[in-house]
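Revision sheet: structure tokens.
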Amino acid sequence: MTEKELLYVEDAINNARLVETKCNHWAQELTDPNLQNFARQVAERHRQIYTAVYQLLNS
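Predicted:
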């Protein structure tokens, strides 16, 4: 992988973690159960993306 490609992957991982963190935060702040559930689902999906990319890099 080139340095530019690695930087792109690093950005993608960091963005996935950021979205996960923000969605988990908002899931705690929201009062509507449907919105809380939606925020948790988005957070989980971004955690899965982060994990998949990280595992791919370590294989």
